[in-house]
Amino acid sequence: MKPGRPGKSYDIHRLPPVWNALLHLFAGGFAFVCIFPFVFVVILSFTDENALLMYGYRIVPEQWSTQAYTYLFKTGDQLFRSYGVTILITVIGTLLSVCMTTLYAYALSRSNFKYRKFFTFFAFFTMLFGGGLVPTYIVVAQMLQLKDTLWALILPMAMNAFHIIVLRTFLQTMVPNPIIESGKIDGASEFRILFRLVVPISLPGIATIALFCTLSYWNDWFNALLYIDSGHLVPLQSLLMRIEQSMQFIISNSALLNSGQSREMLQSLPQETTRMAMVVLATGPIVFAYPFFQRYFIQGLTIGAVKD
Amino acid sequence: MFNKKWIIGLALVILAASVLAACSSGNGSNGGNQGTEPKASKGAQNEGEKENEKPVNLIWYTIGTPPNDLKKVNDELNAYILPKINATVEMRMLDWGDYSQKMQVTIASGEPYDIAFTSSWANDYFANAKKGAFYELDALLQEKGQGILQALNPAFLEGTKVNGHHYGLPTNKELPQQRVFRFNKTMLDKNGLDISGVRTIQDLAPILKAFQEKEPTIPPIPAKIAEFLPYDLPINDLPFIGMPLDTTDYKLINVWETPEAMRYLETMHEYYKAGYLPKDVATQTDAGDYFKTGKWLLDVADAQPYADNLWSSDAGYEVVSVPMHDPIAFNWSVAGAMQAINAKSKHPDKAMEFLNLLYTDPYVINLIDYGIENVHYTKTGDQSKDSIPDSGYGFPAFTVGNLMLTYLNTGDPADKWEKFKAFNDSATNSPLLGFQVDTTNITTELANLKNAKEATYNSLFSGTLDPKENLPKVNQKLKDNGLDKVMQEVQRQIDEWRANQK
Q1: Is B95's CB within 8 Å of A246's CB?
Q2: Confidence band (pLDDT; 50, 70, 90) for B300?
Q3: Based on the domain organization, do B392 and B344 belong to the same domain?
Q4: Would you kindly state where each structural domain of chain A is located, as residue ranges?
Q5: A188 CB near a chain B CB, below 8 Å?
Q6: CA dist B393 to B93, B102, B385, Å?
């Protein structure tokens, strides 16, 4: 290849500088739009409550303050309990869910499994038709007696038909049959094949599912709304939702607003900056889940493993 | 390497599962006993007291943010009521925003409970009563609820009848609605403004003008204010189907077609144009922040006796109000807070006995509303108390029982509850008090009308839109969405209801 101009080497992998700059600008702008609201929430959580009331939301607040955080750390028994509950259900839920999903999906991916069609449909059917809210509630709360237990937060989300289908497809396409056969030739049992051969090379798929599970467990509030009555089992997102919904409720019931009744409701809500601080504390840790799962995405490549 | 990891992972799952199982089996067995059936061992404990009757455990759902010390207060309550009515209560408080949805599921799934909070604005009383979710109380009230009948103003029970029967017990609190203009006294004094003689929205013009000249940076009306038009509204969400309060022929009209409505909206629009309201008032979702900053002159609120004191102590500066009309008892104001008994409750008589205590026993109601003496509040006089700040207990007192038996705050005037009684007695009944619309035949039209209303309601009633131009359009839109059919149907029901009453 000839250099385009003398003195300047031309790299075919590079975009023209103008395009390069434009695309960078576009991507950078988009990234900024995505991240700005969160940065703003962080700033607001460090704003002085009175300054917020007097001057409204400011990017550079009139007065900085760590009031909201000191308040939370002093009185936030509930917050830290909820932290514990969320972390517990996220860890246990993810492990359990990944385990069950992988086993189910692996069975479906094996072409010599006799009832493959039936069990695929069995899972797929639940994607199309759900039981509805009240029957689900009756099953969980009354038949299984899970009300007010941690299991009510874990089990309803432990199996997800969508995850099964995704992982089954991944296993079918990414795990070459000859690898399984080679295991058989060497005399490996089914379990050994699964854990020593299939799982290592399908880590990217499993990690994806694990990431999905982690996020959905971390962000789940609806199960808690339905099944949890006692304060010491309320997860973090549910705690935030309660505050949010109570706010909405008071605003939308403006007929009650300003009467003796809404007074008592408003007094029970945390202040604006405190709410922002809670959002920061609730979202912060889950950000670290991404780099944790990231490293699995590049492992387990099967290129060159099989020569057809 | 992977093998090791997997084994550890699996081991963790299994370990966690077994730990959790242990927890949940403990909880599960508790859950089983939370039913209405009394626990066997509990029965054994109290056999000495009443040999033939086992104590009953009542499950009571009520609204409010659950306080930390709920359990403590609940235990104290049980210790007191067990010898009295041979029953215990399990208080389950659900947060404001969750309450309606959670109760809906609870009721629909047939989950056992005995008593539940209900009202016109959360866990809809009228809908549930019509569905048959609540126990019919007529006979029980006579039998076990004499204390309640004595405590309550008859209009309370009259206004909450559904199909001629009682299904819920209203809190004994302010019964009528009285809308007031509320003023920031600091601002009034500072600028030498006089509010005597104010009664209607039009009377405010000179005050607002003078205020704007002196304080041009502060919008005198900081948020959308609730309107008052002299009509009784049979359907809460649709404030245009109304009956004049002084009606004699009981004919419904479209309120938004009346000259009063036009005049009100024109005044609001004038005020908006003059800059008395913030520019973005129609889309504001502010829950009263201006109250904290003190940068406002006037808004609208619903009053009760000595409400000015209440507001002033909240705000930290003096707040005064002038009424727009005499107190009127509406259906929705009467059903502002009630307790009902589950239709499937196994012990409705015990539930009624407990509710009766809430209306007659000062100890019980003060315990529930304010907590334990010297832990959550201290008494400062025979009938007054000071709450201890951050004590870990708080309960929305207006949601339950007889408010007139509760202790006053130290600063309150001693005749507060007498004033409440007088306020309740002074109320005129709205023409439709006790009438409930049956919406089964008109649900589609109602939903359409509601959507049509929501589209412009806030911008019209905050004065943002010019009513001359827009109100006729809105009225036409309402007509297109089946207003006439709904009015006919409701009118028919009203005629029927009146015929039955005679």
Answers
A1: yes
A2: confident
A3: yes
A4: 17-70, 77-269
A5: no
A6: 12, 23, 15
pLDDT band at A31 (very low <50, low <70, confident <90, very high): very high
Strands (DSSP E) found in B371-449:
377-379, 384-387, 408-409, 428-429
Beta bridge partners of B116: B61, B340
Which helix (H) or strand (E) segment holds residue B232: the answer is: strand B231-232
Which contacts of B416-423 are long-range, i.e. CB under 8 A and separated by 24 or more positions?
Answer: B416/B305, B416/B306, B419/B305, B419/B306, B420/B173, B420/B174, B420/B304, B420/B305, B421/B153, B422/B305, B423/B174, B423/B175, B423/B176, B423/B178, B423/B304, B423/B305, B423/B327
Select the highest-mean-pLDDT range: A101-105, B105-109, B310-314. Answer: A101-105
Nearest to A141 among B16, B111, B289 (CB): B111
Supply the DSSP symbol for B53: -
**Counting Cβ atoms within 10 Å, is residue B442 exposed (0-12), middle (13-18) or buried (19+)?**
buried
Tell me if A258 and B299 make a contact (CB, 8 A cut-off). yes
Amino acid, res. A135: P
| pLDDT category of residue A267 using cuts at 50, 70 and 90 | low
CATH number of A77-269: 1.10.3720.10
* CB contacts, 8 Å: A268 with chain B: 64-65, 96, 394
8 Å CB contact of B16 and A92: yes
Report residue B25's pLDDT band, with 50, 70 and 90 as the boundaries: very low
The region of weakest confidence among A116-120, A180-184, A258-262 is A258-262
Q: Which domain holds residue B409?
A: 43-177+330-436
What lies within 8 Å, CB to CB, of B125 at 6+ separation is B118, B119, B160, B167, B168, B335, B338, B340
Would you state the pLDDT for residue B30? Answer: 38
Under DSSP, the state recorded for A143 is I
Same domain, B427 and B495: no
Summarize pLDDT for B259-270 with one digit per residue, the tens.
989 999 999 999
Closest-CA residue of A relative to B110 is A138
Chain B nearest-CA distance from A210, in A, is 13
ipTM comes to: 0.70
pLDDT tens digit string along B472-501? 999 999 999 989 999 999 999 999 888 887
Contact B105 A54 (CB under 8 A): no
More confident residue, B319 or A51: B319
Mean pLDDT over the full length of chain A: 82
- Is some CB atom of chain A closer than 8 A to the CB atom of B18? no
Residue B429 and residue B459 in one domain: no
Same domain (yes/no): B381, B485:
no
> What is the domain count for chain B?
3
Handedness of CA B422, B426, B430, B435 (dihedral sign): positive
Q: Do A199 and B64 touch (CB under 8 A)?
A: no
At residue B39, the pLDDT reads 39
What are the strands, taking DSSP E only, across chain A? Answer: none
Nearest CB partner across the interface for A260, out of B101, B293, B398? B398
B109 touches A at CB < 8 Å: yes
Q: Is A296 on the interface with B (CB under 8 A)?
A: no
Number of neighbouring beta carbons within 10 Å of residue B434: 18
Q: Is A103 on the interface with B (CB under 8 A)?
A: no
| B386 and B368 housed in the same domain | yes
Out of A16-25, B128-137, B218-227, B465-474, least confident range? B218-227
Report pTM: 0.76
Residue in B with minimal Cα distance to A258: B301
The length of chain A in residues reads 308
At residue A98, the pLDDT reads 95
Most confident of A1-5, A44-48, A53-57, B268-272: B268-272
